[in-house]
Amino acid sequence: MMAICTGCSLLCEDIEVDFKDGRISTTKNLCRKGLGRYRSLYTERASPRVDGREAGLDDAISRAAGLLKEAKRPLLFGWSNSTLEAQSAGLDLAQKLGAVIDDTSSFCQGELLEMVLKGELPTCTLDDVRNYADMIFYWGSDPSNSHPRHMSRFSYYPRGEKRQRGYDEDRTAFVVDVRLSPTASMIKEGFFKLAPGGDASFMESMLAALGGKIPRLQDKKKVIAMVNTMKRADFGAIFPGLGLAYSMKGRMDILKRLVDGLNETSKYSVIPMVGHFNMRGFNQMLFEKTGFINRVSFADGVEHGPKQSIIEASKSCDVALIIGSDPISALPGGVARSLAKIPTIVIDPHRSLTSELAQVIIPSALSGMEAGGSAIRMDGVRVEFEPIVQGGGSLPDVEILKRIAEAV
Ligand code: SF4
Predict the structure, then answer these.
(1) Range(s) within the chain of domains with CATH label 3.40.50.740
(2) Torsion from C-alpha of 50, 323, 143, 291, nearest 10 degrees
(3) CB neighbours (10 Å) of residue 272?
(4) Following DSSP, what letter does each residue of 123-190 receive, concatenated?
(5) Cβ atoms 390, 42 nearer than 8 A
(6) Which end of the chain is more exposed for a tag (fewer CB within 10 A), N or C?
(7) DSSP states of 88-103 as a string?
(8) pLDDT confidence of 325, banded at 50, 70, 90?
């Protein structure tokens, strides 16, 4: 049977799965990360709980609805591992409750993705990259780890319509990072090592070289040679990762200047390396509805800003619904302390640190395996998937959210 992997935002659609005695026995084409996702079908699964005790699914849903109904300032957080259908139901619920809604992009790739969605940075699809790109630039990203099939399916190794001769002849790649990552070690000649936080200055150096001036930083000859090669490319793709997002916070205008400068002689696109399988879907949906990609409150019309991020909102909200996310593990300790003071509802296929502290746990079916739906790939392409195994009694996220909304 063919399946889609929801292990990362590449949403690989060429996965082959065989079954024995109702369980997955063998798979083909999964990377190690995807294999982990498939294996998670059988490990650490959540079960319905209310106030630390086992409960029925109906009781858990009804308690969740009760908590949300009584709340004065509910926070709905997560969403990057939910289907588009669940995200849409979540937005309806947020509007009905007058809640704050935020997702993981709020503290990772949000700024970059917003620029792409607003048309401030040119973009293209991964299929365009495979077919046409002769210049690949991984900036603060390490696809070999984060999206293990990125280089082989789309960006570096594959042959494409206009790139028939293989990566060593047809594509040039550069890597900019603070360490010799696994990706950088594959492209050693094109690797530039920066000091942490040095991305903006390095970009200024590239801009200087682009304008015919001597760059201030790094091996000047190497920077000039790189920029000249980049200027001569037919089709370039820049893949910024978390390293760039953290280092450049609030200064992405420099990246825009660089891309604009390169596009005076060539054609460059930017595809942010979003991690979770449907973060972009949530950001696009909220953007279409409100003009903002995250950090929105529906308490009084539409309000947006840092106060509506989980970091700030967790201090002022009185109930939090967390879906498909583990903020207590992933976010600063202050968020965990704030969330520990209020009732939390967790909807997740798996147990997590956040679910350990939750008043209500509602187990959900694993999207892409037990539940079908759709999602937006990192490059904006919509992908549909069907369930390949029975949900073991868990409902898809979208059904849980609809039932909560009905009961609120
Ligand atoms: S690259 Fe991502 S989507 Fe593809 S198989 Fe690996 S984890 Fe799954």
Answers:
(1) 46-107+277-407
(2) -160
(3) 31
(4) ---HHHHHHH-SEEEEES--HHHHSTTHIIIIISS--BTTB-S-HHHH-EEEEEESS--HHHHHSGGG
(5) no
(6) N
(7) HHHHHHHHHHT-EEEE
(8) very high
Indicate the residue type of 128.
D
- Residue span(s) of the chain under CATH 3.40.228.10 come to 110-270
**Rounded to the nearest whole angstrom, what is the distance from the C-alpha of residue 149 to the centroid of ligand 1?**
6
| Tokens 């879907």 -> residue | 281
Count Cβ atoms within 10 A of the Cβ of residue 100 and give its class: 0-12 exposed, 13-18 middle, 19 or more buried. Answer: buried
Residue 108: the pLDDT is 85
Q: Which of 82, 23, 15, 5 is nearest to 365 (CA)?
A: 82
Contact 347, 100 (CB under 8 A): no
State pLDDT tens for residues 35-88: 999 999 999 999 999 999 999 999 999 999 999 999 999 999 999 999 999 999
What contacts 29, CB < 8 A, 6 or more positions away? 12, 14, 15, 16
How is domain 46-107+277-407 classified at the CATH fold level?
Answer: Rossmann fold (3.40.50)
| DSSP conformational letter for 366 | P
Contacts of 380 (CB under 8 A, 6+ apart): 123, 125, 280, 284
Does ligand 1 have an atom closer than 6 angstroms to the CB of 5? yes
Q: Which of 11, 12, 141, 145 to mutate to test the pocket of ligand 1 (most atoms within 8 A of CB)?
A: 12
Of 286-295, 330-339, 364-373, the range with the lowest mean pLDDT is 330-339
Q: Is the shortest distance between the CB of 10 and ligand 1 below 6 Å?
A: yes
Q: Is the CB of 276 under 6 A from ligand 1?
A: no
Q: Is the pTM above the cut of 0.85?
A: yes
Residue 332: pLDDT band by 50, 70, 90 thresholds?
confident
The CATH code that applies to domain 110-270 is: 3.40.228.10
- Among protein residues, the one with the nearest Cα to ligand 1's atom 2 is 8
**At residue 294, what are phi and psi to the nearest 5 degrees?**
-165, -175
